[in-house]
Design a protein that fits this description.
Length: 218
């Protein structure tokens, strides 16, 4: 897979960043824009991997570095805003016995992701369309939640992550990533939602934040 990325225009970057800030500080406002965001990514799904180099080492470098920092051996993993599944499949390779779920708002993106795995009789890796603002999973369902280039729904992540579980928020191009949330805001929200052991770093052009949900029993 080539790591050449098509440039993103300033307007798209501005809109993406504004959406990320809005979701972080006022997640209740998300339903007003979710339909438009879903339609945007439905249109963007065709040719996504070619335009963004989604499966390339450069695109996934920050996710990989965040995983190294967390030092977890999760059994249940969720990739939020999985798009065409590049990060989900990377996580499946990293954790060969874990069950891995990829979720995305866009049914078109999920179709592209699903086509990469075909029929998986064990259902170790599976994809489904859904909204990270109202995750279709119960409390404490996951040991690890990861997301690459995606707005952060802190409340929902906290609900589905088990105490002691890990979170990785990665971008593929740091501040140039349209869907990226300022690190200061991320740190603030992580603290407010009960996360600790917050670490940050850069890898390639990307950035990562890794944290663990505090376990009151420890
Ligand atoms: C910039 S793309 C990144 C896709 C993939 N993670 C990657 O790195 O190639 C953002 C993705 O997040 C999805 N998304 C945006 N808001 C979402 C939400 N509330 N719930 C689930 N997915 C969402 C979009 O449909 C899109 O596929």
């Amino acid at each position: 897979m080539s790591d050449h990325r098509a440039p993103v225009d300033r307007k798209t970057r501005f809109i993406g960043k504004s959406i990320c800030r809005l979701v972080a500080v006022a997640p209740w406002a998300w339903p007003a824009i979710s339909g438009a965001v879903g339609r945007f990514f439905d249109h963007a799904a065709a040719g996504w991997d070619e335009r963004t180099a989604a499966g390339s080492p450069a695109h996934l470098a920050a996710l990989a570095a965040g995983l190294d920092a967390l030092e977890l051996r999760p059994e249940k993993v969720l990739d939020l805003g999985c798009g065409t599944g590049a990060g989900t499949l990377f996580l499946a390779r990293e954790f060969p016995t874990a069950s891995i779920r990829g979720l995305d708002l866009s049914a078109e993106m999920i179709g592209k992701a699903q086509a990469k795995i075909g029929l998986d009789p064990d259902a170790r890796v599976s994809f489904r369309a859904g909204d990270a603002a109202k995750l279709p999973f119960g409390e404490d369902s996951f040991d690890l939640v990861a997301q690459v280039n995606m707005p952060i729904f802190f409340g929902q992540i906290t609900r589905v992550l088990r105490p002691g579980g890990g979170l990785i928020i990665a971008t593929s191009q740091g501040e140039r990533t349209p869907f990226s949330t300022p690190e200061r805001l991320v740190r603030q929200k992580l603290a407010a939602h009960g996360f600790g052991q917050v670490r940050t770093g850069a890898a390639g052009e990307g950035t990562w934040v890794a944290a663990k949900l505090k376990d009151p029993d420890e």
